């Protein structure tokens, strides 16, 4: 059994993916070939923003977004401790300070009620993560940001395709960011990512930073980096995008079926009002996780933990002095969450096998 099944998806889309890849091999424009702009136009239309900018990966996407809004050493950026390291890491890489705020235990996303208490004169931005494929509470977060004149960057690495009150992840804040890492809801065949914004000036700055800060070849008004999306990865994404809506529908159906079948034995994901989830991870909460994982492994059911250590307890952030107990909800989730096999090609028989194994392990 696969935790994520990329082979079935490839078999399903093989003709289109192969044709798109071969078109790149034929024209040979591997860096910023025409597929990149073609993909950006399609991504902007899908997300519902003026500008989509393809970048090299979801981590660099966050770095570029933070650079584009002018984050400097000493600035503070409010974010969640219950996320993949990249979120806090890119804030720290720029010399800024990640200011962690605990999660809402119902959704695992940043608790907006705790944000205002964390704002200081040094705060420049809020960077919520739309964890597991469900958007954070952007209306409330944006209202707080507007009141305090802060930018909002969505780390939507796990939520591409998700909807919040009728709007798409990526279109909910000053800048939206995503990852096309192969296992993400929309994945390419290597590293990839994108940024989204309605702001013309920010889009221009993001494009410059992506290409060494240049406005034209060998002219560099600002400092940037090499953060371009590969043409070959853009080609793969162009082949996958037409069936993405069907895959999102399948993810929602499979996630809902898991929840129906497991709700009596484990804590299943809760969807906030106006939100769906693309279930980048289908994650439940249980007691005795290690034993349950071992029992499932015995039954041939792979599991994973997203994430076992909150960022405040990572050695890389030890200097922030936020010991155990600083973020009770994030820390409890880190001890209890477990993700089950999830992909759009998961059939009911296999899902029943997972459910039976979970029930047996918890009995
Ligand atoms: C929440 C979150 N942020 C950022 C990233 C980084 O994306 P990438 O692996 O494409 O650099 C990931 C990917 O794992 C993620 O899950």
From TrEMBL:
SUPFAM superfamilies found in the cross-reference section: PLP-dependent transferases (SSF53383)
CDD domains: AHBA_syn (cd00616)
InterPro entries attached to this UniProt entry: DegT/StrS_aminotransferase, PyrdxlP-dep_Trfase, PyrdxlP-dep_Trfase_major, PyrdxlP-dep_Trfase_small
Record-linked Gene3D superfamilies: Aspartate Aminotransferase, domain 1, Type I PLP-dependent aspartate aminotransferase-like (Major domain)
The EC number(s) this enzyme carries: 2.6.1.-
GO molecular function: transaminase activity
Keywords per UniProt: Aminotransferase, Pyridoxal phosphate, Transferase
Highest taxon above the source species: Bacteria
Family statement drawn from the similarity comment of this UniProt entry: Belongs to the DegT/DnrJ/EryC1 family.
The protein, known as: DegT/DnrJ/EryC1/StrS family aminotransferase
């Amino acid at each position: 059994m696969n935790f994520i099944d990329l082979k079935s998806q490839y078999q399903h889309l093989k003709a289109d993916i192969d044709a798109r890849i071969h078109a790149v091999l034929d024209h040979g424009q591997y860096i910023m070939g025409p597929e990149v702009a073609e993909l950006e136009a399609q991504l902007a239309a899908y997300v519902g923003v003026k500008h989509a900018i393809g970048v090299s990966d979801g981590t660099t996407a966050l770095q570029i977004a933070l650079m584009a809004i002018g984050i400097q050493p000493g600035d503070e950026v409010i974010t969640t401790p219950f996320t993949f390291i990249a979120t806090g890491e890119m804030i720290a890489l720029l010399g800024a300070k990640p200011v962690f705020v605990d999660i809402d235990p119902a959704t695992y996303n940043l608790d907006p009620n705790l944000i205002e208490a964390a704002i200081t004169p040094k705060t420049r931005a809020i960077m919520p993560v739309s964890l597991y494929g469900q958007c954070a509470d952007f209306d409330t977060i944006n209202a707080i940001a507007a009141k305090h004149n802060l930018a909002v960057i969505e780390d939507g690495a796990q939520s591409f395709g998700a909807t919040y009150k009728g709007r798409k992840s990526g279109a909910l804040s000053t800048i939206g960011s995503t990852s096309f890492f192969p296992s993400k809801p929309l994945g390419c065949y290597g590293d990839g990512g994108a940024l989204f914004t309605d702001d013309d000036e920010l889009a221009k700055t993001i494009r410059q930073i992506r290409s060494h800060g240049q406005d034209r070849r060998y002219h560099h008004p600002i400092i940037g980096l090499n953060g371009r999306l590969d043409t070959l990865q853009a080609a793969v994404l162009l082949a996958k995008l037409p069936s993405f809506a069907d895959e999102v529908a399948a993810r929602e159906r499979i996630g809902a079926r898991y929840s129906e079948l497991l709700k009596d034995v484990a804590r299943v994901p809760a969807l906030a009002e106006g939100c769906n989830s693309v279930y980048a991870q289908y994650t439940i909460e249980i007691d005795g996780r290690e034993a349950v994982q071992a029992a499932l492994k015995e039954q041939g059911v792979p599991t994973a933990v997203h994430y076992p250590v909150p960022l405040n307890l990572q050695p890389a952030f030890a200097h922030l002095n936020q010991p155990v107990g600083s973020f009770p909800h994030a820390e409890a989730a880190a001890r209890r969450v477990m993700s089950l096999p999830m992909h759009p090609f998961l059939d009911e028989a296999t899902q029943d096998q997972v459910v039976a194994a979970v029930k047996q392990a918890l009995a």
